[in-house]
Amino acid sequence: MPSLPLFLEAKLHATKDPKKIAVIDKTKNAAFTYAQLLADVSMLKTQILSFLGVDSSGDLDEQRIAFLAPAGYDYVVIQWAIWAAGGVCVPLCTTHPPKELLYTISDSDPCLVILHTSFQKTEASLREKGMPNVPFMAVTPFTASQTSPQIPRFNGTAPLLSRRALIIYTSGTTSKPKGCITTHENIMFQARSLVDVWKYSPSDHLIHVLPLHHIHGIINGLTATLLAGATVEMYPKFDPKTVWDRWSDIGSSTMFMAVPTVYARLIDYFDASIRSTDAENAARAGSKALRLLVSGSAALPAPIKQRFAEITGQTLLERYGMTEIGMALSCGLETDRRIDGSVGWPLPGVEVRLTERGSGRVIEGFEEEGMIEVKGNNVFKEYWRLPKVTAKEFTKDGWFKTGDVAKRDRTGAYFILGRESVDLIKSGGYKISALEVERTMLSLKDISEVVVVGISDQEWGQRVAAIVKQKNGTTSLELKQLRSQLKEEMAPYKIPTMLKVVDSIERNAMGKVNKKEIVKKYFPEKI
Questions:
Q1: Residue 446's CATH number
Q2: What is the CATH number of the domain that holds 138?
Q3: Among 326, 409, 329, which Cα is nearest to 317's?
Q4: What residues contact residue 397 under an 8 Å CB cut-off, 6+ apart?
Q5: Which residues contact 84 (CB under 8 A, 6 or more apart)?
Q6: CB of 400 within 8 A of CB of 171?
Q7: Tens digits of per-residue pLDDT, 298-325?
Q8: What pTM was estimated for this model as a whole?
Q9: How many other C-beta atoms can be found within 10 angstroms of the C-beta atom of residue 69?
Q10: What is each CA distance from 303 to 286, 320, 438, in whole angstroms?
């Protein structure tokens, strides 16, 4: 095994306690120790190299390997085995149709595609869609060992941490998905930073329901937890009943991380199936006993945060990050350092600044809106095979331009106003944060979900438009009624002048909405 820091930490955990559980795979209903994890990784690494005709002591030298596996122990073994073989991981989304999988595979140009046996039929679908001539390798599910596996031998020389390790494709909510390359150094910096700030420890137990083709699930959930020697309990998909059942078993878990829509579904399930039943006391007590609950990947609406706190006694910890930078900002672990509407302060070793759009002037004061720029070892290496695009996204002095707009208060805490390209609406000379309007609208009793967008207008520049999903059983919402309710809550120029009421609002696996697609769908005549 190569002496990568993540593997060495796993070896340390396995040596300290050979019975220490690394992963609980709920699909298999089996638990796997750190010792077995390392042994299985070593074995699969050898199989991968052999399949590709490379000597067992050889190295893939940063060749890409795409893989499709359900969230669980097998996913972890495949990911680590690719790293052990010197390859670059390209995790595929388990819910993407063949057309989207084909885009990721074709763009990343892998030397191999690994398919878990539960996705065997995918190969035929991909071949039919014009799959490049890339070999496929099947991986048989691993089983829990009844004996103590032998920890594999490690190489004395550590590989360069500057080597490419992972390609995660951006969500594509504002442009075509790009392959974002992070190095082993990036991954370790991001994971260690969170372990330090959020105080992961070997006694932690994470209920993991996040998708594993995004930074949130891969780094915050999986890598940081295993780096700390804790236990990850993995599920192939989120189910609110399962999570409440696990929380109700007090002491069985300590951490949970999710996107706002997951917390909304947990609230809805509690109200519909737990409140005023015999299960309510255990559910409230169990959720209150959790050490850390984190919300991210999309803006957390205040009503969701407040309702969740009423049920659980927990104040969700908000943070800010993205594929290119991992996590950059976080509210404090102490609940009194969790400010409503804020994503907190820069993480250790991460530099964050605000600059004026256009001029690039660094904003030194407070309460002035600016573009967020980030610098540090957390920042990705490059976009895959897009050198001009990569260069464009960095300033001359080496800061990454996130494309997000924020302001900062006198404590240094940041407040995200949204993406400059889709969340900042310019109407009648005013700059309006779509996220602020969305948060206010969600406080209205009849609204379940809302998306606010700017629609081109000859007179105003842009008009504020709202796409709304109402709560079940509520009276159909009219624009005049909506505007009347909002006049008590916000300035007149922020209030939507266009309204579409819909049955559902499409979101990706991380709870994000593609606002450009929303505009095309509901306001095609305005494009």
A1: 3.30.300.30
A2: 3.40.50.12780
A3: 329
A4: none
A5: 1, 2, 4, 7, 41, 42, 45
A6: no
A7: 888 888 899 999 999 999 999 999 999 9
A8: 0.89
A9: 25
A10: 22, 19, 11
